[in-house]
């Protein structure tokens, strides 16, 4: 029945069958998070890094109404340049499939697809979260609900301070989602290593992350895990520069009345514009770093499944 909706590429399917490590990758970052051609270059380099670290990459997207787990080179190019590629979160998925449209998957939808395919580990840049001012707007990313229910561990560089990081952590706690600091006691804030908020636990090795994930799922504690991996020191941005850029972006979003699913892409694009190329370069480097760490965790998870 699932074959009607899900198309797993042969290399990924074979790896999953043999219990080899596979890393899921999202596509909203390609279609809505970075400009062309950097988006496609980055996506290809991430796939290369995953392979170099002993895992098989599976970039996930929706192509003509079918969920592709492991897109081709041509499909990556299409996702990076196409005009009508819809940002697809959980609520959008069934309609985009039924209408036969093209979609870029958010963290939430990539988790759904990964779980359907049997992939346990997913690498991204930053997760969605509770937006600043959510007390008024109710804007809380569906990524957080997905983390509450879907059994996929997500490696990210924390959450951008376009979000309310404190409320995001509270929401995750309420939903029983562990937040692990990879080699850090502090929740990273995407462009910077520090946010001023602690993590639940610090973990220093990929094997230890894998053991924690296995324990969670062995006990039937459904839901994901956040592995917050700080941007490497040499690529982090100046705290004041990025804070000012985010403040201006938030102000402009409010003035223009930007709402709903447009909010995150609008803020990301504005921050990029205000900081020139600087934020984009940091963004690329933190994703590479997440791909390195995530692949190592996938390798350890595969060992435990044997
Ligand atoms: N945060 C980033 N970069 C991104 C996103 C979030 O730093 O590209 C994307 C991810 O795909 C995430 C989505 O799942 O935005 C969240 O959107 P929303 O807030 O509308 O749920
Ligand atoms: Mn939202």
From TrEMBL:
Does this UniProt record's set of keywords contain Nucleus? no
Q: Which UniProt keywords apply?
A: Glycosidase, Hydrolase, Lyase, Manganese, Metal-binding
Residues at the catalytic site: 26, 160
Binding annotation for Mn(2+) = 139
Q: State its Enzyme Commission number(s).
A: 4.2.1.70
Q: Which Pfam families match?
A: Indigoidine_A
Source organism, top-level taxon: Bacteria
Cofactor(s) in the UniProt record? Mn(2+)
Reaction(s) the record says it catalyses: D-ribose 5-phosphate + uracil = psi-UMP + H2O
Recite the UniProt cofactor note for this protein.
Answer: Binds 1 Mn(2+) ion per subunit.
> Signal peptide span per the entry?
none
Binding positions for substrate per the UniProt entry: 87, 107, 141-143
The GO terms this record gives for MF are: hydrolase activity, acting on glycosyl bonds
What family is it from? Belongs to the pseudouridine-5'-phosphate glycosidase family.
Q: How does the annotation summarize its subunit structure?
A: Homotrimer.
Q: What does this protein do?
A: Catalyzes the reversible cleavage of pseudouridine 5'-phosphate (PsiMP) to ribose 5-phosphate and uracil. Functions biologically in the cleavage direction, as part of a pseudouridine degradation pathway.
Q: Spell out the HAMAP family in the cross-references.
A: PsiMP_glycosidase
The molecule here is called Pseudouridine-5'-phosphate glycosidase
Source taxonomy: Bacteria, Bacillati, Bacillota, Clostridia, Eubacteriales
